[in-house]
Here is the input.
Amino acid sequence: MYGAKGSSHATGLFLTLCAAMLLLAMLSQQSWAAGPRGAAKSALAPLEETMTSAANGVTRVASILGDVSSLRAENARLQAADEQLRRQVVELDAAAKENAQLRQALSFQKSSGHKVVAADVIGTGPDALSRTMEIDRGTADGIRAGMVVVTGAGLLGRVREAGPHAANVQTLADPQSRVNVYLSRNGLQGTISGGPAALQLDLQHTIGVVASSGDWVLTSGIGGTYPRGLVVGEIATVTHRDTATSDQAQVAWVNDPTSVGFILVITDFVPS
Amino acid sequence: MKRVAALGVMVALALVQVTWAPRISIAGAFPNLVLATVVAITWMSGVRAGMAWACIGGVLLDLSAPGAVGPHALALLTAAYVTSLWARNFESAHALHAALTAAAGTAAYSLTLVLTDGLLGQPGIDAGIFIRLAVAAAVYNALLTPFALEAMRRLRALVREGPEPA
Here is the structure.
C-alpha cells in the first residue's frame, strides 16, 4: 500500500507522536496539572451522564421485551394482559430494586457510623485493563482522591482522582487494585487483587488453618488504605498446595460492577 | 465540515465505549470501539489518518479514565502503526486481514498501556491476568473490526455520493 519512503515517513511520524503523547502523559501527571486535568475530565461528565441514562432506558426496554416473551411461554392468561400494566410492573420492579439499594445504603450509613456522600455512576473505564467508574460528584461535594467507596452490600473501591464535578473510582475488579483482607472465620490474612471474572485472593499460609468455600472476606485495615471490617465477598474456590507459601482463592464479590448505579463515598476516613 | 462530523462520530464512539460497552463484557473484556475504528481508518485511509485519529480517540478515552492524559493515545498509536505494517503489503482491506490486525493491534495496545503505566509509576498487573484480559480483548476486537470496516466503507460511499457543495 505504501512505498519505502512513505514507510520511513510513517515511522518518523509514529515516533514523534509517541514522544509527544508520552510527554503529555508525564506533564499531565504532575501535581500542578491536577486542576486542569480534573476540569477537562469533568467537562466530559455531562455527556457520559446522558449516555448512561440512555443506556439504562434501552436496558429497561430490553427487559420489558424479555419479560413479554417469557410470559407468553409461561402463561396464556398473561398473554392477554395489558401492555401498559406489564410495563408498570417492570418499572415498579426496577424502582423496588433501586429502593432496596437505597435502603441498604441508608442501613450502611447508620450501622457504620461513617459520613458518606451518595453519587450516581455515570461511566466506566475505557477497557478491561482499567476497571474504573466515573461518578457525578467531585471536589465541590467534598470528594477527595483516596476516599473509600462502598455500596450498601460492601466495599466497591476507592476514589483515584477527583475533578470539580466528577470523580474516578478504581474498583476492586481493576487489575491494579490491591486490598489487604482477613477471613472472618479464622482470621487468615491475605491480599485481594482484581481479575477478569472473580477477585483473586492470595492467602498467607498458617499451619493448621485452611480457608474454605463460604468464608467471608473483610478488609483488615492493614496499610491504612481502607478501614477495617468492610465486607468484600465470600470465598468461592480455594486452591491449597502444601508446598506453596500461599493459598490462592477466588472471591465472589458482593458487588456486581455492571449493575451498580448508585454508590457511597466515605468522607470521614482518611487513608494513611 | 466532514472533519467536524467525523470528530462527532469519534466522540460518540468513545462515549458509547465508556457507558454501554461494559454491559456486553465477555471473559472480562468488552469491545474497544475506538480501537476497532482506528484499525479500520488505517486500512481505509492510511497510516497518517489512522495515527491522527488514534491521538484524538486516545485523548477522549484518557479523559474518561483516571490518571494521566496520554496513555490511551499512545496505546492506540501503536495499534495504528502495527496495522500499517500489515496494511502496507495489501492494496485493499479484506475482512480477515482487518480482523487479524485488530487482534495484533489489541495486543500492542494492551502491552503499551501496561508499559506506560509502569513508566508513570502506576502499580503493575499480574502477568496471568494481563494475558487473559489481552487475549479476550483481542478476540473481541478481531470479531468487531470487520464490521467497523464495512461501516466505514458504507459511510465513505455515502459521503462521496452526497451533493457537491455549491
